[in-house]
Amino acid sequence: MSPIPHSVRFPFGYKVEVRLVTGKQIKRVNGQDAHGCWDGGTRKIYIDKTLNGLEQRYVLSHEMIHAFADWQHFVLGGDEGAPATVASKVASRCRPK
Questions:
Q1: What's 41's DSSP letter?
Q2: HSE (CB half, 13 Å, CA atoms) of 39?
Q3: Any long-range contacts for 37-40 (C-beta under 8 Å, 24+ apart)?
Q4: Distance separating alpha carbons of residues 83 and 58, to the nearest angstrom
Q5: What would the pLDDT profile of 32-75 be if each residue is shown by its tens digit?
């Protein structure tokens, strides 16, 4: 089984870091007991390092759904520093000349 990645890159320069941490560290970030959490402010996924490999993969896939939702917001221009309308830039490149 492949190890948990240290980071994941989405298109348009959106990088998500992945950290294996203790449950106490997750509670500090998330405010509750959990096996993992997504911190959209820092673009980090935290996963309980005491879980076995399969459980860590499950938590990673769950937290990636939250990261993907934030990535969509970023792509559509909702994040500071993001292109105002990425979709319009892409569309302008796809139009025939």
A1: T
A2: 16
A3: 37/63, 38/63, 38/66, 38/67, 38/70, 40/66, 40/67, 40/70
A4: 32
A5: 899 999 999 999 999 999 999 999 999 999 999 999 999 988 88
